[in-house]
Write a structure and sequence with these properties.
- There is one protein chain.
- With 475 residues, this protein is an alpha/beta fold.
- The protein has 18 helices and 14 strands.
- Helix 17 crosses helix 18.
- The longest helix has 24 residues.
- The protein is elongated, with a radius of gyration of 29 Å.
- The relative contact order is 0.09.
Amino acid sequence: MNKKFRLKGVYPAVVTPFDKNEEINEQALRSLIRSAFDHVNGFVPCGTTGEFEYMTFAERKKVYDICIDEVNGKKPVIAGTGDPCTKHVIDLTKYAKDAGADACLVVTPYFLHPSDKGIFEHFYQIARQCDLPVIMYNIPQTVGGYLPRRVIEDLAEIDNIVGLKDSSGNLTYTMEVLEKVHGMIDVVVGHDEVVLPALAGGCSGMILASAQVYPDVWQKVFKAMQAGDVETARNHQLTVQKLSRIFCRYGGPVPVKIALKYMGIDMGKARAPLKEGGVILHEDREEIRLELEKIGKVPPSQPTFENPELPIDKRFEDIGIGQNDINAQRILIGSSSAGAGIDKVTIDLVAGQKAGPVGVSFASQLVYLRRGYEALPSVLEPNLSAKPCCLIVPTVELKNLRQANIMYGPAQAGIAKAIADKVQAGVIPASIIDTHVMLTKAFVHPNALDRALLYKNFYAATINAIDMAFGKGVS
C-alpha cells in the first residue's frame, strides 16, 4: 500500500455539543477532546454521532476549526464532510483541507439513491477534485442501503481513497470487503458491538461513538489484538458490551450525550427531532449509569444497601406474620444469603398452612398490593407456578421497571426451581404441596445487573433457606 494516510487505531466519532440556545458550545467541544486525547489515535468530528445532518455547513466548518485547533497537529483529524450532493461534499472537503484536516469521512449518498455508477462517480469526483485522503463510510442503518462491495473495490484503486469505515455490524459484508481490498485500503469497524471479531478479521482500527466514553477500554482491546492476545481483548470488550449495545441500538448522539453527562462532561442535548425522553426511557438511562459505574467512569450514586438485621422470627411482621404466630402455629421459617457485593441476595422464607396466618398473609399480599413492593408468584415457566405456591415480596422498594425486571425475573425462576428441586428430593413433603403456602422476602441491591448470576444466587439462597425451614420436618 503506497497511500500516505494510514487509518489505524482508536478514533472517537465526536458528538457536537450544543448550549441551551442550540449554538455550538466551543468550550464543551474542547473539553471533550481533551478528556479523550491520551487514549485515542485521532478524532472524527461531524459524523453520524456528531449530528452532521442537523447542522448547517457553516456550523460544520466551525466544528472542524475548533477540533483542528484544539488537536493542534498532534493527532489526525478526519472531518466528516458527507452529504447527498457531490458538490456540497467537495466544497466542505476543500474547506476541511484548508483548515488543516488530515482526511475526510464521506458517507454513501442517501435519500435519492443513485445507481452503483452514480455512487462511484460521487466518490471519484471528490477524490479527483480534493487533495485530501478520502475515507468511504458504509452505514446502511441510516443510509438505507449498503455501499456496494464492487464499487468499493473499484474505488480502492484511486490514490487518495485510503479507507473504509464499516458501521453495518454485518461481519459477512465486512469480511467480503476485507478479502477484496486487503493491501489496497484500510478498513475500520464503526459498529461498537463487533469490534473484537472485526479486528480479528483484519480491520485496522475503529471509529466509534463509544470511543469518547471509554476510549481507554478500546485502546486496550486494540493493543491486545495487535499483540495476538485474543483472550485479554475479549475480556476487555465484554466489560463494555452492554453499553456498546445500548449506544448502537439507540443511535449514537442521544445515549452518548447521556453517558458523557453522567461523567461530568455536559454536551447538551441532541437537536430535534431527536429527543432523549422519546428515545431513552428512564430505565435505560439508569442502565447506562450503572454500567458506567461498573467500569469506574462514574462514582456510585447510592450507598450500599444492606438487608436489615432482625431476629429471623421478627422478619415477617411487616407482612402480617408476627413472632407469636410463628411460635404458636408451628410455622416454618428459614433464611440464607448467597453471592457477594451488589449481586448478593437474601431469602427469608416462611411456610405454613393455607388456613393459618401464612395463608392469610399470602392472600393479603395478592389482594392489597403495596406500591414498589408488589408480590409476585414464583414460576417455573409462564403459567406454571411452583408447588407449594410461593409469593415473592421485595424487601427494597422497586423504583423503576429495570429494578423490577432484575428482581422478579431471576427471583421468580430461581426460587421456583429451588422449591421444585426440594419437593423432588423429599425435603418438602409432597403431602403438603396443596395444603401449605410459602412467602419469601427477597433482598437484592437496587444496582444489581447480572441476571444470570442473580438467578444462581436466588436459587442457592432458597435451597439453604428451605433446608433450614424444613430440617426438622413438618407437623
